[in-house]
Design a protein that fits this description.
170 residues, mainly alpha
Length: 170
């Protein structure tokens, strides 16, 4: 990825990081700004090929995060923001950022669970729901129990390291 695209996207991610940490949401204006500037920048630099590059990246980022949103893993702001990330960085870089962000998110989630000393209960609950699914073959058993709290934290805590890792290591 070009250095100018990295810098432009990083500025947008910094704004999203601040709002996500502070209010646990990413405002639409950040996502719209990311998408439009990514489309414009790529179009100006590379013409029609750049526009296609940005559109496919935006579609990939949006589609994958939309699936994660439907599963309850991320918020709607993250979905829209990843369309903007895709416009700046293209399909392959965006998919790598998503993969590494999920991995960093899993690590952060486990750190939170261990810090709260909830690991044993969460593991027991996950194993019992999985066993119930396998034995009874009812997908509804995978949903969170009424008494268990869903672990929430700002996904940007994982996106920033995922973005940087992708850029500097690949």
């Amino acid at each position: 990825m070009a250095g100018w695209a990295f810098g432009g996207c990083l500025v947008i991610l910094a704004a999203a990081f601040v709002t996500d940490l502070r209010w646990m949401r990413i405002p639409n204006w950040i996502s719209v700004f990311a998408l439009t500037t990514g489309l414009l920048a790529r179009s100006v630099v590379s013409g029609g090929h750049g526009l296609l590059f940005a559109l496919t990246g935006a579609a990939a980022g949006f589609a994958v995060l939309l699936l994660l949103h439907f599963m309850g893993a991320v918020g709607a702001g993250d979905v829209k923001l990843f369309a903007g990330i895709g416009a700046w960085t293209g399909i392959w870089f965006t998919l790598q950022v998503i993969m590494y962000s999920i991995l960093f998110g899993a690590v952060i989630g486990w750190i939170i669970v261990l810090f709260r000393r909830e690991a044993a209960g969460r593991i027991r609950s996950t194993l019992s729901r999985t066993a119930g699914l396998l034995l009874l073959q009812r997908p509804a058993l995978l949903r969170s129990s009424a008494g268990s709290e869903v672990l929430r934290f700002p996904f940007m805590l994982a996106v920033i390291p995922g973005f940087l890792y992708t850029y500097f290591c690949f």
